[in-house]
Structures are given as structure tokens and as C-alpha cells.
Amino acid sequence: MEESTTELTYSQKYYSENKERLLFRLSEKTRCECGTVLARVNMAKHRRTAKHENNMRHQKYLEDVKKGLA
Question: Domain residue spans in the chain?
């Protein structure tokens, strides 16, 4: 039990010392390969959405058209 208390105390101390940097990193805006701009923290969830899948299919279609395959 003592180890988990030590780990918790360390985590709390680290967070309080680095709170601004950690929150900035989470809210930092990034562009997905499908073209959508979103917060970094939401990227994994976004990649599972229909919007992402549709955008990726559309991009592939446009690439095929440029190559003359469609």
C-alpha cells in the first residue's frame, strides 16, 4: 500500500509542476491525414469515425482520378 501512495504522490507532484505544459499538449490542434483539424487528445477516437473513413475514401478516389484509374 505504501508504494502506491508514493506513486500517487509523485504523479500529483509531477502534474502540478507540469500542468500548463501537459494541458497545452492535450489541447494542441493537429491535422489528421483525412484533412480534419482537431485536438491531439481526440485523434484516436476520430480515426474510428465515419467522417474519417469517408474523407479517406474520398481522398483515395481523388488520387485514382488524378492517376486516370477511375
Answer: 2-67
CB neighbours (10 Å) of residue 42? 15
Residues 32 and 43: beta-carbon distance below 8 Å: yes
Asked whether 40 and 25 are in contact (CB, 8 A), the reply is yes
Element (H, E) at 11: helix 2-27
Query: 0.70 exceeded by the pTM?
Result: no
Q: Pull the grid cell for residue 15.
A: 502534474
Query: Among the listed ranges 23-27, 28-32, 35-39, which one has the minimum average pLDDT value?
Result: 23-27
In 10 A of CB 36, how many CB atoms?
Answer: 16
